[in-house]
């Protein structure tokens, strides 16, 4: 069984839209794949709590997919409505912040869990998709995803994060969910669609409709030929 974790009901609804999905004990069966829908709530704290609760209730879970919308730091590679896959998750707020930058702490979040860096999780989306009997389309761009508690509110902040971490996209739940999956030892995928440019707060320049429409295509494409 695969946990499908989305921050909001809307994101989850779009992910499952148009698919035959008979319910079996709270899970849905899509093309022979058993998926447990999970609304995590918004932000890393809510996501971490929800992931822990879901994994405790369902120790039989064999994988986790985090799906939803995101902001893009690079509109040429990751345009509005585009589908992007996280190949690394970074939590830039875990560290010591100054007026100039944030320096990661010297000690890990969990003393018994070694990460690539104290605030980084390297992901292997192609391998994890295979472990969950899913197909990852080659056309989907991959990049570094940042998880933040507060989204970039101005171009200057977005520019700093892009340059400091080589970031492609910005979200609010991915690192917490990836960490929960890593701690449980199950494969993890983070797939998001772009709704806005990071740092741009003028909602007239956002495109939720296009991002949500793209979400509807994610599961069918991953299940096709898998």
From TrEMBL:
InterPro entries: FL_hydrolase_MqnB, Nucleoside_phosphorylase_d, Nucleoside_phosphorylase_sf. Pathway: Quinol/quinone metabolism; menaquinone biosynthesis. One of its GO terms (cellular component) is cytosol. Residues 29-208 form the Nucleoside phosphorylase domain. Keywords: Hydrolase, Menaquinone biosynthesis. Its EC number is 3.2.2.26. The keyword Endoplasmic reticulum does not apply. The keyword NAD does not apply. GO terms for biological process: L-methionine salvage from S-adenosylmethionine; menaquinone biosynthetic process; nucleoside metabolic process. One of its GO terms (molecular function) is methylthioadenosine nucleosidase activity. It catalyses: futalosine + H2O = dehypoxanthine futalosine + hypoxanthine. It holds the Pfam family PNP_UDP_1. Catalyzes the hydrolysis of futalosine (FL) to dehypoxanthine futalosine (DHFL) and hypoxanthine, a step in the biosynthesis of menaquinone (MK, vitamin K2). Belongs to the PNP/UDP phosphorylase family. Futalosine hydrolase subfamily. This is Futalosine hydrolase. It comes from Desulfomicrobium orale DSM 12838.
